[in-house]
Amino acid sequence: MQDLQDIIVSDVSKGVLTITLNRPEAYNALRTNLLREMAEVLESATQNDDVKTVLITGGEKVFAAGADIKEMAALDAVGVMNDPRPTYWRRIAAFPKPMVAAVNGFCLGGGCELMMHCDIVIAGDNAQFGQPEINLGIIPGAGGTQRLVRTIGKSMAMQLVLSGEFISAAQARDFNLVSEVVIPERTIERARQLAEKIATKPPIAVRLAKEAILRSYETTLDSGLNLERKAFTMLAATEDRNEGIAAFMEKRKPNFTGK
Q1: Sheet of 106-108: strands edge to edge?
Q2: Which helix H or strand E contains 90, and what residues bound it?
Q3: Residue 135, CA distances (Å) to 69, 96, 182, 195 in order
Q4: Which of 113, 169, 205, 244 is catalytic?
Q5: What is the pTM of this model?
Q6: Which of the residues 15, 110, 130, 144 is marked catalytic?
Q7: What is the biggest distance separating any 2 CA atoms in the chain, rounded to whole angstroms?
Q8: Could you report the per-residue pLDDT of 157-193, keeping only the tens digit for each?
């Protein structure tokens, strides 16, 4: 990748593309350019068959402390209406492959919303999560009110959004906001291990499984079950499904090709 100012993108290794937020002087605040770069990199990764999973991290000290307040302060109501950031958020949310987040330190506001766009979250025990926008006279604007309530329930979502309080990594795990908590020195390592493991699985099945799980938030149980069954049936036509069954019967490691 060329001309990236706010993120660092690694070479693909073992099927994993790593994106590191890179604004340490601003605690990785999510300014417009960062979101644009993220959206563009993910769209490129969608078309790259070598990319099986994406790992997103802010590094060992901080994930992202929120939006760029200086940038936000410069916008009036018309500026907010014409803000391109909602478009970038939609492009990020549309990424069809698994995203694993490795979170250390502050994960607040827009950072928490970016974390919730990921499919699996590994947190260091030093991580803190919250939606403190209320302290600025605003509310979350990139899905915080909607994704939080679907993940941690109405009461806890109300507490975080209305009070601006932070919660610890252990609390976030108890509320199902993250899947695992490890020591900070192992956060990225553990997230990478998981991303690499997912990258060994049959890509078509992984993408359809992600789609089915995400759809469960948006539809009725009956509609979700119908989608799941259609995906299950579609996979019967793939070479990977035949390879997986053959490898199981022959007691060997499968060789998935994404076909």
Answers
A1: 106-108, 128-130, 166-168
A2: helix 85-93
A3: 12, 34, 30, 36
A4: 113
A5: 0.91
A6: 110
A7: 65
A8: 999 999 999 999 999 999 999 999 999 999 999 999 9
Residues 6 or more apart whose Cβ sits within 8 Å of residue 117: 89, 92, 93, 99, 143, 147
> 145: alpha, beta or left, given left = phi > 0 and alpha = psi -120 to 50?
alpha
In sequence order, the 6+-apart residues with CB closer than 8 A to the CB of 246 are 254
DSSP letter for 60, please: S
At 202, the pLDDT band (50, 70, 90 cuts) reads very high
Cα 20-98-200 angle, rounded to 5 deg: 105
Residue-wise pLDDT tens digits, 50-95: 999 999 999 999 999 987 777 766 666 776 676 788 899 999 999 9
To the query of whether residue 113 is one of the catalytic residues in this protein, the response is: yes
Averaged confidence pLDDT in the chain: 92
Q: Is 109 a catalytic residue?
A: no
Instruction: Give 191's contacts (C-beta < 8 A, 6+ positions apart).
Output: 55, 57, 100, 101, 102, 120, 122
Pairing of strands 99-103, 120-124: parallel
Which of 26, 29, 67, 195 is catalytic? The answer is 67
Residue tagged active-site, from 133, 157, 172, 205? 133
Residue 228 is a catalytic residue: no
